[in-house]
Amino acid sequence: MSEIVASGSNHTSDPGSRYDESVKYIKATLLDILLVFYTILVLQRAIYFRFILDLRVLPFSWVSTGAEFALSCLIGAWWTHSRTSLASKLFGISRNDSVTKWTVEIYGWFLFDITFIAGWIATNISIVSLFSGEGLRGAERLFSSLFTPQFGIFNSALFAMIETIYIALIATMLSIPPALILSFFTARNLMKENKFTYAIYYILRIILNFVRSIEPLIWAIIFSVWVGIGPFAGMLALMINTIASNARLYSEAIESIEQGPVEAISATGANKLQIVWHAILPQIVLPFLSYTIYWWDINVRMATIIGLVGGGGIGNLLMQYQGLAKWREVGLIVILIAFVVWIMDYMSARIRETIY
């Protein structure tokens, strides 16, 4: 009788394991296809066209690209089917034999080598240009000007630096409420109870990943067109990026909480809001504060960069003097930026130490 029950339990668990195996196989196949397609593109376009033929404009054809992708699908699908591919090894469905070991190691090193070579070619690395006489003389003139700053613009530079700090501060403070709210809706352990909440979780994750993937520099350009050039555009750009980034960090802190207090509060019959207030918030207050201070530090640095595209602050002043080739004025601004960033980094580190 026990054998029958055991065989029945094994039978019921088989569909789940077969489903997981099928999902891993599909993911491995897609990854192998992408790896093969990437290899073909790098070998053809970067190494052959760009390096060997020295073509400045690379030829492109949808027909040839489609044929290359079709070939990649055939090779990738066959490679995954053989269970000796790099992707099958990564997803844990490979054959544990010497063939797989050699295949994975050889292709892994080959992929790394051609990627490095393609990167070297794409970035036009030239040691000769770096150490040429003309280049070294130009660098000497530039650095001699940078390290003999013009203090005549100190007042305007200081005001612009203060503006930059406030841009970062306001952007960080305004990002806290929406990031805090979104973090609870993007925490897997709180949203996996039913399909509806799980769908909200995935949709919000996709939106936040998209927003976070766009650099603050791009957001600054968008808001400079939207609301006009100035500190308001820079603040909005930093705020949007900080909301997306902090919501992700906050949600990860929520996902890593201890489940004991949650289960204890739930056992008393508490509702969802009471569980969050009494069991979750006490565990995440310190990480939330630490992440917020950390992002204020980052935003001070980013506020300098977004000023280059109209986001206001010290970056705007830096762009003006750099465009006029007034390197002594640029030197003063760079020294001021470095000093303020160092102070901010020290203060944020001390505050985080005090919190913990």
Gist of the model:
By secondary structure, the chain is mostly helical. It contains 15 helices and no strands.
Explain what the structure shows.
There is one protein chain. This protein is mainly α and 356 residues long. 83% of the residues lie in helices and 0% in strands. The protein has helices at 2-52, 62-81, 86-90, 98-122, 127-130, 133-146, 154-185, 188-191, 195-213, 216-227, 231-255, 259-267, 272-306, 314-323, 327-355. Helix 6 crosses helix 15 (327-355) and helix 12 (259-267) runs antiparallel to helix 13.
List keywords for this structure.
MetI-like fold, 356 residues, mainly alpha
Topology record:
Blueprint lengths: L1 H51 L9 H20 L4 H5 L7 H25 L4 H4 L2 H14 L7 H32 L2 H4 L3 H19 L2 H12 L3 H25 L3 H9 L4 H35 L7 H10 L3 H29 L1
Percent helix: over 70%
What separation lies between the terminal Cα atoms? 58 Å
Going by CATH, the architecture of the largest domain would be: Orthogonal Bundle
- Strands, count: 0
Radius of gyration: 28 Å
Total helix count? 15
Tell me, what's the shape? flat
What structural category arises from helix and sheet content?
mainly alpha
Question: How many structural domains?
Answer: 2
What is the string of helix and strand elements?
HHHHHHHHHHHHHHH
Extract low-pLDDT stretches. 1-13
| Biggest beta sheet summary | none
What fraction of residues sit in β-strands? under 5%
Q: In CATH terms, what is the fold-level topology of the largest domain?
A: MetI-like fold
CATH superfamily of the largest domain: MetI-like
User: Can you identify the CATH class of the largest domain?
Assistant: Mainly Alpha
How confident is the prediction overall: mean pLDDT? 84
